[in-house]
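Morning!

This is the sequence you dropped in the shared folder:
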Amino acid sequence: MKQANSKSPTTVILWIVYVFLLAVLMPHTAWAFRAFEPSSGWVITGDFTSADLVSYIAAIAFEASIAVLTHKLAKHIEDTQKEARRKNGLEKVYLRYGNAFFGGLLIATAVSSLANLAHAVQFGSQLAIFTAWGIPEAVYVVAFGGVLPVASLLFARVLSNVNESEGVDDPAVTEAKAANIELRKQLREAEGRAKSAEALQARAESERQQAEARFAAAGDLMAALMADDKRERILAVRRQWPQLTGSAISVMVGASPSYVSEVINAEVING
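The structure's back. Tokens below.
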């Protein structure tokens, strides 16, 4: 999903055009409200009176409400798009447009439409193309007056569609993202297995080296125990098992205890 605050250039351009459209409608709406204000009022500056000020405030309120309600409606459609996928037909329409945002937008648009239609009727003049082709005056009065607020309502629908479509990921993109996540997962698992294999190999190598060292030491000991020189045999046993007594050593090497003591004492002195 795209982030809600991430707007495409198309959406920005549509909003700019929409705001300009409302700005065009506002003076006509203000003119209509001015017709219901007192003809006189306290003068603010020049010919601009308090009645004119009230009329413009009312027009700004209505046209601004159209913009705000359009934004709210578009946001509502965007927020409910997941739920709308699970509904069909009228349920989907009601979910999107059965709310206060759309109701308020219809009312504000109706007021603006009547105001602009009244302005077009009041100040409209014959155009050559309509006179020459015999097109009724009501057609261009509606086309150039009352239809403008309706166009703003259509903009609301277009903007809602844009927000809705921007919120939905392309299925191909979604599938590619899922495949990418799965590949990354498999890669991490493969790297983990490779590291485990390297650790096992290093451990096996260490154990092999230790075994070779033990075998080498055992071979040296056996060679020393099998030596013809009794003195060498005595010293080999003494180095291998220093806790043994002289009597035990004499039994193992086949020498007298006195000779064993003599060899060990000499080794200690020369040591």
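Headline: Residues 9-168 form one domain.

More detail when I'm at my desk.
O.
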